[in-house]
Amino acid sequence: MTDDDVLHARENYRPSRGPSTPAQAFAHWTARVAETPDLVVCRELAGLPDDQLQALALAYEQAPRHRRSDLFRYSFGAAAVLALAGAALAVAELTIPGPVVGRSTYFVGAGAFLGGAFIALCVGALSALRQVPTEAAYAKLGLLVGPLDPQHPWLYKAWFVVRNPAATAYRDKVVRERGPVRGLDHVLMRRIADLQDNMDLTLNARAVAATVQAAGEAPAGAVAAAPSAPPLAAVPGKVLSLGASSEAA
Length: 249
Hints:
The protein is mainly α and 249 residues long. The protein is 63% helix and 2% strand. The chain has a two-stranded antiparallel sheet with strand order 1-2.
């Protein structure tokens, strides 16, 4: 690491205290899930003690839906109020006589309120679209920190993954050192099983390549080839058909 790397790392290093409440911790990890690959987040969550993971799981059970905390969450309500005010002024414009020359106050007010309602509606729609990744990360974090109980949707997937010996070894270590197996462990076990399968395929490919390239040696476990059927020309008086042979006419 050079001096420039150290200076760059120091400029981007902002130490801070950890979240004090489970809700704040869940919000922190939700933002982390939204901007970080799943495997990296699972490795970071796997380093937490089981009591912190259990606190995150309880926080998700208490609030399974993401609750927005930004000011734009009131945009749709403000748009409804402004639209009602504009509609009331429009009705007043139609029922109450106004000045003969120029625009009446009711007409101008109705246009202003309806325009404000449209702007608030657009702001609310855009802010709701921006919250879609956060809501998805919130739900994903709930699956990651939740234990693999009968209600967890990844239970049977984890059961198939545990058949791999490397994944079984990881599962045993987690149960022995940390506690219950959780959704994040399923992601890590699946990655471990994939790596183990790829290693096995690589080793098998090397063995097969060595056998193919070897001169004068028969492959181990080779089965003697069965005698091939005689060609059609060697069977006189027979006509090939779709299921049975018949005598030539």
